[in-house]
Amino acid sequence: MENIVEFNNVNKYFKDFSLENINLQVKQGQITGFVGANGAGKSTTMKLMMNLLQPDTGEIKVFGKDYANHEKELKERIGFVYDSNVFYESLNLKDIRKIIGPAYKNWSDSKFYDYIKKFELPLNKAIKTFSKGMLMKTSLAMALSHEAEFIMMDEPTAGLDPVFRRELLDILKEMMEDGRRTIFFSTHITSDLERIADNITFIQSGKILFNESIRDIQERYALVKGNANLINHDIEKYFISMERSSTEFQAITNNAEEVRSLLGDQVVMEEASLEDIMFYTKGASRQYV
Description:
Elements: E1 3-13, E2 18-27, E3 31-35, H1 42-49, E4 57-62, H2 67-76, E5 78-81, H3 93-100, H4 109-118, H5 132-145, E6 150-154, H6 162-175, E7 182-186, H7 190-196, E8 199-204, E9 207-213, H8 214-220, E10 222-227, H9 233-236, E11 239-244, E12 248-253, H10 256-263, E13 268-271, H11 274-281
Parallel strand pairs: 3-7, 3-8, 5-6, 6-7
Antiparallel strand pairs: 1-2, 1-4, 8-9, 10-12, 10-13, 11-12
Helix pairs in contact: 4-5
């Protein structure tokens, strides 16, 4: 399967933060969820993908090409869906179409009007009257109207009510049915990713902890609960984080099969959600594999 985006040993240094040795692949025709705490490096990574920042070392390729020689061509194929308004507030959608449409060689007026109708957006009302959900749909309609193949979404469901969030997720799933598009979806709402994502990339403190299929994550990670007497040095090494009292422990493992083999029915093992993984690995110092 082709990689739409490839980061190879990418480093980006700031005064008080850095992305270190980032190796990342975004696979064609899939939805990749991008998770991490505030300040983990999500926005910096996405800016590097868009060429709004350049790496200090390492290589970034999009559709197999670099921005240095192919920036205009690449940006024709990318759509970015913002989490806030980026349009002039006094304009309406007809006005915005006149400004944005000519910038893209693949722009389709017919698709634009089709998506505006499908998303139930008003053509003649000023953007300043739009809700957050309507602004999200507007950005998405713009991206789809110029046949964007790679769509980047920054916190698209944040601040939306549950009904609207579900509607947006259904729209994204429908968009993916023909296999021509790829979505990179940054969010704090991990339950949304568990509903629609194919792959998950988890970044913490400027480092990628894992970048793999959600199915593999569900198989590898587990919450483990049991009697504290079971814990010794040999067992503890299979846990990436653990809470322990005098009588009981609760831990998370990224090697569920081995823990199940060693401890069997002496412990209770539960599937770890993405939220569990983020919570328990925060601050953990163990090397992830």
